[in-house]
Each structure stands twice: as structure tokens, then as C-alpha cells.
Amino acid sequence: RIDGGAESVSIRFKGGPHGPFVPQARRFYGWIPRPTVPMRVFARGALVRGQTPVALDRGAILPLRVEILEDGRPRDVSADPALRIVAMTPWNVAAAGPGRIAARATSGFEDPSDRSSMGVLLVYYGLDGGPELGVREIKVALSP
Q1: Are 67 and 75 in contact (CB under 8 A)?
Q2: Helix and strand tally (H, E) in the chain?
């Protein structure tokens, strides 16, 4: 632009899971690796199941218990350095330390006008080329 401001240019990508697409703001486009070990995630002592969101008040921090199953036996990896929590909607949720999530924007993604009510995080265990890889998506329903 002549005035020195930024300008957005739409780009149409040729391939996606459903054909060509133009990325939309605040949508995630990416690949989730295939897990090699079963992983369970617990919030407030209850197993997080499927697509059922975990309710969380804005600003709150919630510890998670993360287990992988080895030969059918659970192993707690909540504080293991190989555990990673990644905010897929960083404008409204964040990792808040080992095994903890927060209902606030990830640093650098703050937007005071954003009042979206659903957040998504990915919980990974063992991404650095080890033999084990656990992956779970966690949905968070944020209070109004």
C-alpha cells in the first residue's frame, strides 16, 4: 500500500482434505500426527471423553492428569518433560505450565474483542522421535 499500512491478500490453496480452500481467520489448518500409544486425559478427576468440552471459567487454570497406557497399565506423564500442550486457538486458551491449561489468550495472541466460547488444545506426549507418541485433542467451553 502507498500509505505504508499492511494489506491482506487472499490465497487459495490447491489441496486440502475437502479440495481447494481459502484460509479463514481464527481457523486451524494443520496435521495431527497418528498416535502410537493410547492416551487418557483427566480434568477434575473425570476422564475427558471424545468431543465433550471441559467447562472452564475465563481466566481459570486447570491441572490435567495425563496417562499413557503401557501394556494396558496407566503411566502418569502429567509432569514428564516429553508432555506438550499446544493451544490450537491461542486467542482464547493457553498452556499454563506442566500439565495445566488456562482459559486466557496465549502470550502474544491477546485480543480484547474476542469472546469466542470454544477453545481447542492438543496434548502430545513423546514428540521428539521416541518410540511412544500419544495425542489427544481437548475442547474447552469458556464461560461467557
Answers
A1: yes
A2: 0, 10
Phi, psi torsion values for 111, nearest 5 degrees: -145, 100
Interacting residues of 138 by C-beta distance below 8 A, sequence separation 6+: 41, 43, 48, 54, 64, 101, 120, 121, 122, 123
For β-strands 118-125 and 134-142, DSSP reports them as antiparallel
Read off the pLDDT of each residue in 30-36 and give the average, rounded to a whole number.
68
80: its cell numbers: 514428564
pTM of the shown model: 0.73
Closest CA to 101 of 39, 44, 36: 44
pLDDT at 36: 79
Amino acid letter, 57: D
Which neighbouring-strand residues pair with 69?
74
